[in-house]
Every structure is written in structure tokens, then in C-alpha cells.
Amino acid sequence: MTNVVSLNHFPSDIYFSKIVHSHIEALPDSSLSLMGKKMVEIYYRSVLASPYETLFVAGEQSLDGVAVLSLQPHNLMKRLVVDNLVNFNFYSSALSSITPLLKIISSALHETKELPAIHDLPEVVQLFTLKEKQGTGVGTSLLNHVEDFLKEKGIGGYFVKTLTDPANPALTFYRNRGFIVVGNCVMNGQNFSFCTKRLMPQKR
Q: For position 96, what pLDDT does the model report?
């Protein structure tokens, strides 16, 4: 069984580097990855410092997978930009790749018309496993830990968004774990599906 923990402190430099490298390797086409290693580092430092986000990791020694849960996903990108207005590395990374920068600014400034089904729900904004660990239950273990975390807080559901593509294995992954597609939207020229899952309250 994969060991999953939520990080409530900044990890060692070596382990943090593994998180950053794994993000770039697993999500090479994400806006953050396209803006380079420094931007991914800034993002995860912001996540670890934020009272609204929680970083879950699978594997204490060798990193097997990562999940990021946001309790305020509607303004996550806006907070990332605002919190780093005086960060030189933010601008040097941003200016090195204009298109991903514009996508992040668009996400930060765009007022998304939220679906009623996801209003006020937390979001798992990142979920990935290392290539060699895919199909071994790491993703499921991460989601199980996220759900236990939410249940302890009395939160009855959450959502994810993923590419609307029949060939996207993530859609099957989420459906097989009790998620329901509740709507779609176009973001930065790509069509995304919003999937929600309701949680049973913990027995007292």
C-alpha cells in the first residue's frame, strides 16, 4: 500500500526538487511547466505557504505521486500572481515564455462563470504519478487521502477538471472512482470537463 502524507512543513531541498522535477516530467504541457523550472518552484512554494492549499505526496523517500488540493480554487492563480509581484524570479521565468504567461494572467483575471454544481467546492488542481508508478494504485491512494482530509473538515464533496477527450485516460480514472461529469468549459482554447464527487460523512 502506498504511503501518502500531507506536507505541513517545507520538505528538504532534495525532496522539493523531486516534486518540481516530477511535475515537469508528468505535466510537460502545463502552463507552469512551459514557463520553466523556476516558475514551478515558485508555484509549489506558494502552495506550501498557503492556508488554502494542501500538498499531498505519495512515497516518503522516493516520490511516487503528488496531489494539490485547493479550498479556494476560484482565485488560486490570482493569488499566485499577486503574492509574487515583487519576486524577480517570477518575472524572469514569466518573460522567458510569453504564451504560458498570458494563460496564467488570463486564468488570474478571468471571472469564470461557475457551474452551480461546483460552487464553493474544493478542487484537486494537480494529480499525477510518476510514469513508472502509473497503474499501481498511487493515484487512488492520493485521492483517498484527499477525501479523508476533506471529511475531517466536514466538507461533503470536491471536483476536478480534465481534458474533454475520449482518449484522455483521466476521464475513465475519475469515472471509475465515483466522479460525475457535471459540465464543460473552454479555457485557453481547450475543452475541459468538470467532474464532481460527493463524500459520505465520517461516522462518529
A: 54
